[in-house]
């Protein structure tokens, strides 16, 4: 097994076709196909399944790809340290629930390690996809929360995927509302007081279970529910409809807007916000730098 073969596998997986991968790698299609087959034979696994519609990753291929990415990342770091080269494009990916501090830390990371070439990804996505991204090593870090309601289910899923939860801080539940909301002058808000206002939350796709919700599940049934996919839409509706959402209370005026405020929510369990990593993956220098930046915004 060589680093070159690992690069071939990663490129084919990214492009989805042998033809495009061969063009990107500047080699012939037969050479690329043979190299991958030799690697599959040596490792005694089937990385790609050949179908009438092209090639797709097998289940064991997905696992192998995660480790291949990690090896290539570590090789790049070694080249950077000992050969005095850039080691190619710096690559880093983090998957997160919709937290402003996760974005701020990502900005700091790029300012620190952006250099001339980089390939960084910030995925604000659904809870199940965050877990899947880290499990398959597409993302080095995933950011989400646990509380009394969801922790039994999520910790079981994390354990089955070889993932570890690291707590960053404990947050008291807050509601995000418009500065002009009728309840904006309250020092603390109850669920009963919110009953007549639209509740805004991030949809979780086919895994739209209460356990995967980014917002705290409440035993109080909400009469008006609106689900959205992105942060901007949620805040626009929140202002326009006098709606609300439940959050950690960590607010950033640059990202969330000066018209949004956070007010403590009564009678709900604390949120343990943290990050998940794969137990078989070492934290890279980029990952460590990102977490250091993250902690700075949570002090």
TrEMBL record:
Pfam families: HTH_1, LysR_substrate. The keyword Transcription regulation applies. The keyword Transcription applies. InterPro entries: LysR_HTH_N (IPR000847), LysR_subst-bd (IPR005119), WH-like_DNA-bd_sf (IPR036388), WH_DNA-bd_sf (IPR036390). SUPFAM superfamilies: Periplasmic binding protein-like II, Winged helix' DNA-binding domain. One of its GO terms (molecular function) is DNA-binding transcription factor activity. It comes from the Bacteria. GO terms for cellular component: protein-DNA complex. Signal peptide: none annotated. Keywords: DNA-binding, Transcription, Transcription regulation. Residues 1-58 form the HTH lysR-type domain. Gene3D superfamilies: Periplasmic binding protein-like II, Winged helix-like DNA-binding domain superfamily/Winged helix DNA-binding domain. Belongs to the LysR transcriptional regulatory family. PANTHER family: HCA OPERON TRANSCRIPTIONAL ACTIVATOR HCAR, TRANSCRIPTIONAL DUAL REGULATOR HCAR-RELATED. This is Transcriptional regulator, LysR family. It comes from Coprococcus comes ATCC 27758.
């Amino acid at each position: 097994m060589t680093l070159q073969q690992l690069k071939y596998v990663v490129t084919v997986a990214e492009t989805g076709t042998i033809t495009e991968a061969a063009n990107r790698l500047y080699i012939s299609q037969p050479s690329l196909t043979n190299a991958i087959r030799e690697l599959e034979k040596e490792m005694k696994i089937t990385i790609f399944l050949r179908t009438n519609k092209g090639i797709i990753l097998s289940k064991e291929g997905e696992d192998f790809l995660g480790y291949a990415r990690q090896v290539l990342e570590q090789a790049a770091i070694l080249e950077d340290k000992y050969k005095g080269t850039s080691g190619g494009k710096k690559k880093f990916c983090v998957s997160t629930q919709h937290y402003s501090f996760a974005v701020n830390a990502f900005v700091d990371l790029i300012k620190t390690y952006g250099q001339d070439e980089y390939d960084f990804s910030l995925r604000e996505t659904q809870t199940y996809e965050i877990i899947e991204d880290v499990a398959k090593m597409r993302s080095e870090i995933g950011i989400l929360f646990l509380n009394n309601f969801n922790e039994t289910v999520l910790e079981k899923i994390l354990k089955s995927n070889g993932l570890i939860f690291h707590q960053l801080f404990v947050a008291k539940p807050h509601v995000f509302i418009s500065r002009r909301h009728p309840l904006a002058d309250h020092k603390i808000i109850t669920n009963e007081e919110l009953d007549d206002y639209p509740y805004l939350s991030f949809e979780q796709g086919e895994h739209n279970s209460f356990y995967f919700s980014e917002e705290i599940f409440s035993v109080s049934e909400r009469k008006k529910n609106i689900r959205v996919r992105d942060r901007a839409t949620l805040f626009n509706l929140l202002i326009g409809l006098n709606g609300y959402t439940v959050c950690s209370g960590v607010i950033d005026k640059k990202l969330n807007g000066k018209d949004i405020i956070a007010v403590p929510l009564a009678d709900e369990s604390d949120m343990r916000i943290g990050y998940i990593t794969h137990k078989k993956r070492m934290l890279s220098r980029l990952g460590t730098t990102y977490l250091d930046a993250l902690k700075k915004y949570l002090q």
